[in-house]
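Q: Structure for this?
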Amino acid sequence: MDTVSCANLVKVYRDAGSDYTALKGVTFSIAQGEFVSIMGPSGCGKSTLLNILGLLDNTTSGSYVLDGRNASELSDAERSVLRREKIGFVFQSYNLLPRISAQENVCLPMSYAGVERSEAKARAKELLEAVGLTHKINKTPLQLSGGERQRVAIARALSNRPSLILADEPTGNLDSVSSKEIMELLLKLNSQGITMILVTHDPGVAARAQRTIHIQDGVLVN
Amino acid sequence: MRIFETARTGFGELWSHKTRSLLSFFAISIGTAAFMYTFASISGLNRRMANAIKLSGPGKLMVENERNYDSSSQNQKPQLSYDDAVAIRRDMPWLYMVSPIAANWGRKFLHGNTYARASVLGITPEWSRRDWVYKLRGRFITDSDMTGNARVCVLIEDGDWTPGKKKPAWARMSMWDYADPVSDHIKHYNMLGENVGIDNHEYKVVGIIKQPPLDDDPRWFRMGYGEQMLIPITTMLHFMPQQYQKGVQRIDIDTGDEKTLPLAKHQLTVLLKNRHSDENFKIRSLSELFQQALANWRKQSMTILAIGIVAILSGGIGIMNVTLATVFSRIKEIGIRRAIGATKSDIMLQFITEAVLLGFLGGVFGILLGYGFIQYSAADDWELKVFIWWVPAVSVLIAVATGFLFSLYPAYTAAKLDPVEALRYE
């Protein structure tokens, strides 16, 4: 079964009378457990597509079905619930809350999902150990290196056991050694059955995926 | 998200913006303290008034001279006199008490080597029918003292404070703590049976009445003017005619019953109008007097309440301001929280919780402040200390409601932020 299924996605931004069409009818689907990279130049609509896939943004027309549920029929609250239960985000700039510890950051999605606090803390510790940050769970993001921050972000993305991870240039801010480690981590997660969608500029990174979707000026190209 | 979790986060946020939070906190506190003080004193005074009415009975009337500010003797209207009181007693025998009072201040007082100035009241035996809160040693003034113009007196001993009880701050102030030489003398010498000189005449001390301790005085307020001795009014007429010229200050009446008040008032008016060419007296019932005093006090407390409302409103606006500033400084964070699964209500709840916490903390501190203020301005068992559970509860509730109401708009602003825009915000 397809986890992600998009049909004729169109996204139009209305800004002060002039319309800008970011996606001009995009159709594709991704099967459960696939590792797909999305490539394309800046401003081609990659991020817009990722936001729609992550239920952060609405489509103007076309349909997006995630795990059998049509996104356009979901209320804002239902989208939030799906975001925290099915999807994990990994951003280029990590997007951790800077003042709280790594463990607290990982706990955050679980607290919204109503997980018991002691259970959440235990699971956060486990996840941070799994990404190799055993001794840094009490450090705040400001005390961590870029690679370490991205591992915290991945641990956070995994906290509610999602079926889909959306990664937006996860290695974009990292040196080559850290990049390699993060990619290994994502591949490992994919091998455990989590569907992985990764947006990147880097052909080397894209090559690690099973399949690459190229996008240019809001349309898919082969 | 769990409420505890939200509260924990909220507390952390308040803590990380200490100065900002503190300003709203203080405004809320001052407002709450003002509310608490007003509530406490209104309910305390109401209680005290009820007690005072219970003590003095419902049938009290006071006939007083209309205040005459023109002191030149030609324009002086005829005043109430002892004869008026005699006439009232004669024409209205059903009254329980008719008690005329003629006050004289600054009379020469001589006992042993002590020479001072004293206040003397000329009264009739019926004076003792008022709310009797005194302890009497010896005897009171009698009818035979009256008919014989006897030079006898009853001294009034100051009640002071119950030993061991804390005086309130105002009572410790020099103005109130001033020791009057005559009162001091009465307190320290047992003068019962001795002679005392008043204006060059000798009077025999036949009785001493002791006031109740000031902190335990059930009366609404002290009737009288710090008087120190009582003599028969006829004696005053006979031996101090110059001083008596001013007539009597007041004729206190007790009908014994609330129902007969209007009748007594009517009869008194007719009677006194016949005796005086124009209406230079006024008749008020004690409860009217209380109501008047209470109304005056309410007016004052409204000022305090207005200050409280302004303070709590500015606290509310402060909370709104702080919350809005917090929202704008945390746009990115709101985006992140939305991305990892917070609903709009989660976001709203978070900011409301912070403001409500601030309101609650401010309210609790305000109660302590208000309570401290009440402690400072009241003694043990004083009316304000009548502690009523709902006063602090309502005060905190108002503070919490302020936090809640004023954070609704900022919280809504935060909740309706577009997650994509918020995430992109730097």
